[in-house]
Design goal:
Elements: E1 7-10, H1 20-32, H2 40-44, H3 51-59, H4 61-81, H5 92-101, E2 105-109, H6 114-123, E3 132-134, H7 147-156, E4 161-165, H8 168-177, E5 181-184, H9 191-196, E6 201-203, H10 206-211
Parallel strand pairs: 1-2, 1-4, 2-3, 4-5, 5-6
Length: about 220
Amino acid sequence: MTDARGTVILDVDGTLVDTNYHHALGWYRAFRQYGVTIPVWTIHRHIGMGGDQLVAAVAGDDVEREHGDDIRAAWTEQADAMLDEIAALPGAHDLLEAIVGAGFTLVMASSGKPHHVERYADLIGAGDLASEWVSSGDVERTKPAPDLLGVAMERVGAEAAVVVGDSVWDCQAAERLGLPSVAVRTGGFSNEELREAGASEVVASVEELTADIDQLKPRAPQQA
């Protein structure tokens, strides 16, 4: 497999498909099923973090111990019920083509459930554009842990990579692995939040990134 320009590790939820607010509402409803009410805005600030870590992060360790797995199962049911409402973000497919056309190796990496990611792949017309797909089913810990990114690089034998995502958790995961990241604001996080989390570049949309694909500058992982 050639990787002349390096690898682009591309997030899916919130970056290519418009899911973040659906997910926030789904988590809100799932928590409520177990008598826990978390303000939706608080949940939204944690979207992009994997469900294995989100429950404790927003509701505390006691809720995780008592109801964590049940809440995650309830969220999956809520998210499944909203799948038909999910749409691709404008320009999502064009970005995939631009990345591959520019000579990068493309790996799709999402903290989402594998069956959700499969649905999103259809929505964005991914076809065979990506060399590999990595989801929560491939790792023990999801974002902001860097495990997904590490597996993504291993799958294609990448020596240099750049991460593209929409949340502070994408940027933190990249930073923990010593990789640069380009953040897209479609997830609802501000420029300042994304920069503070380690984003190398911030763009308003995938269309903006497609128009200036040279903002993608893979590099080898660097130790902090």
